[in-house]
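user: Please review this fold.
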Amino acid sequence: SSCSSGSRGLPFRDMASLSALLYAVVPVILAILAALCRRRQPAWPFKALKPSGKHRSAKMPVDGDSFEERKRDFARIVARSKTPGLYVVTSGGGSPLSWTSSKASDGTVSKEAADAVFTEFAAWLEKQVPKGTATVDLAKRVVAAVAVNDTITFAMQHSLPPMFPQSKFVLVLSGTGRVRVLWAAFATHDPKPNMTSTPFILKLVTDDLNSEQAAERASEDGVEMDYVVVRTTAEDLAVYLKEQQAAALSRAAVEDIWDDVLGES
């Protein structure tokens, strides 16, 4: 045949030029598509609440009437239920596991019932952190963090309606003794009767509750918290935590890296 190989396809140099062009153009196209997707998202509906930021918790009492109230709140949250309120993630585990008290709780949660739940939880927690690493009143700070009081404080400080459907707490225990509490809940700017989920999930994470600083100052100053508000199509918060957030929470427990938990998903 009189036809050359170059007439049947692109010469090698032209192929190389085309590949280089694609490498240059594709990232630009992807960036444009990502920008268009962001533009399609509805406007941010919260007036005072930013997508992420810092929050100072309320005081974490370790005695007195305030702590008794926190113990009662805690006892209600960890009571046996089809919808557990507290989950635990450890450096040796995977998906969040529910933690419920074995102590029967009366409907009004008497002082005796709350004391029994706290004693059980404190004994369990002591076995979960490395021996000798637990700071003074660690269990009390965790109980104080896992209570409804701070949800109301957050709502007031960020001009949110105090409606947080399906609130859940996750206790994250690292292998080095760091102890943090994640509070997750659906959040809304427009509360409606019988609302069970919203297009937004709010996540707050405490600083290490087992640090010397927390032991010394949390009862008077509270602790620093990081928060993020993410858009979601999830309707069941327990499923979201156990499936969509399992890997992120596991990494937080193993490496004490919270970027994935506090990311945009």
